[in-house]
Amino acid sequence: MSGALTVETRDLERLTADERVQWAAWQAADPDLASPYFRVEFAEIAAQVSPDSAVAVFRRGDEVVGYFPFQKRGGAVLPIAAPMNDYHGVIGPKAERPSLAEVAHLLGGARFSVSGWVGEAEGAMLGESFRTTIPEEGGYDAWYAARRQAFGKYFKDKERARRSMAAEFGAVEVQIGLRDGALLDELIVLKREQYRRTGRHDIFACGWTRDLLHALMAADYPDFGASLAVLRAGGRIAAMEYSLHAGRRFHFWFPAYVPELARCSPGIMLSMETIRLGAELGYRDFDYGFGGETYKRYFCDTVQTVAEASIMKPGLNAVLGDAGASLLALAGKPALIDSVRRRWNVIEACEIDTAGRLRGAALAARTALSKAAGRAKAAS
Fold it and tell me: Contact, 213 vs 188, CB < 8 A?
C-alpha cells in the first residue's frame, strides 16, 4: 500500500459503525490481538471514564491501516486506560499497521510511554507475558494431568494446602462469573491495603480506575465483559480475582487474598478452580499477563513477547514533567532510575492533577530509597 502515513484523532464515540466492524474484523483475524484489551468494547468503555481519551485513526494514502486508542496526561501520550491496560498496540492488518516509533512520532507529545506493546517495536525493551491453553480433547483434566506430571511436588503441595484449609476453616467453595458491585468494592479495599503494605502507588485513589472496573463489569455484551471469582472457606472469603474476558480468552487481572490465610495459598487455589470452571464454560486461553512471577511457570505453556518503551523529546521535564523530575531528584541514584521511571509511569497515568502526581512521586521516592537502603544493609 502506497502513500504517506497520516493520523486523525477523534473521540471514540465518533467511530462509525463501519469503522467498528473493521476494527473488530482486524482484531479477530490476528492471534496476537486476541486479548480483551484490543476489543473496541474495551476502548469505548474506557473512554467514558478515563479523562482525555481519544482514538488515533491511521491512514496510508486514503486507506485506514489501524486504530490506536490513547489518553493524554499533561504532555504525555499513553495507551487508553493506562495503567489499567496490560496489552496495547495498533489494531490493524499486521503488514500495514504503524510501528511503535511511527505512532509516537505522529501523536507527538513530550513522551510516548507503553508497558505492554504488541507489535513492531524496534529498540524497545522486550518482556514476556504468560498464558496457558486448555486442550480441546480432555479439557481441564488433561491439562491438569500434564501440569501435575511436569511439576508434581508443586501441585501436590497445593492439593495438601486445600485439604488443610478445608479441615481448619470449613468447606472450600469457588464461584466464578460473578457481577456484584459490592464484592468488587471489597476486592478494591483488599488491593488498596496491599498497596499500602508494599509501598506501591494506590492506583484506585484517583477514582476513575475504580469506575472503569465497575463499568466493564456492568457491560452487557455476548462475548466480552468482566467478572469476579471468589473462593470461600467455611463461608468466609479467602481470595477474590477480577478478570476480563472476550471470546475464548480469559485474562486474570486483579487478584486479592486475605493476608491471614496466605499460608494456605488461596490465590493459587482460586486460579486453578477458575481455569477448571472457566474451561467448562468454553474458555481455552487463560492469560496471566506479563511479569516473571515464579508461580506462572507452573501454570503456563505459552509466552508472548511484549515491549516496554518511553519515547521522548529532549529534556528531563519533557520526559517526566515537573513531578517526575522531582521524583528522580529525590531518588538520586542512577541504579534506581528504571524502577523509579516505571513507578512514575503508573502515577502519571492514574493522577490527572499536579497535587496527586506530587503526592505519588514523594511516596515512590521514599519507597525506592528505603528499599535501596535495605539492600545495601543486607549486602554489608
Answer: yes
Q: What are phi and psi of 199, to 5 degrees?
A: 80, 15
CA–CA distances in Å: residue 323 to residues 288, 318, 351: 32, 11, 11
Give the ranges where 94-203 is alpha helix by DSSP (H).
Answer: 100-107, 139-150, 152-169, 181-198
Instruction: Identify the DSSP state of 264.
Output: G
Write down how long the chain is.
380
Residue 326 neighbours by CB distance under 10 Å: 17
Q: What percent of the chain clears pLDDT 90, i.e. is strictly above it?
A: 70
Cell 470461600 locates to: 232
List residues bridging with 252 in a β-sheet: 243
pLDDT of residue 263: 87
Q: Is the pLDDT of residue 317 over 50?
A: no
Taken in order 338, 344, 346, 349, is the CA torsion positive or negative? Answer: negative
* 337 or 320, greater pLDDT: 337
In this structure, how many other beta carbons lie within 10 angstroms of the beta carbon of residue 138?
Answer: 12
- Pairing verdict, β 76-79 and 111-117: parallel
Dist. CA 26–CA 12, nearest whole Å? 17
The closest alpha carbon to 304, from 133, 151, 152, belongs to 133
Beta strand residue intervals within the chain, DSSP E: 5-10, 53-60, 63-73, 76-79, 111-117, 125-133, 172-178, 224-233, 236-246, 249-257, 285-290, 302-312
pLDDT in tens, 47-69: 999 999 999 999 999 999 999 99
Residue 121 CB contacts under 8 Å (≥ 6 apart), including other chains? 99, 100, 101, 114, 307, 309
pLDDT at residue 374 tops 70: no
State the chain's mean pLDDT as an integer: 89
Cβ(66)–Cβ(18) under 8 Å?
no
pTM over 0.85: yes
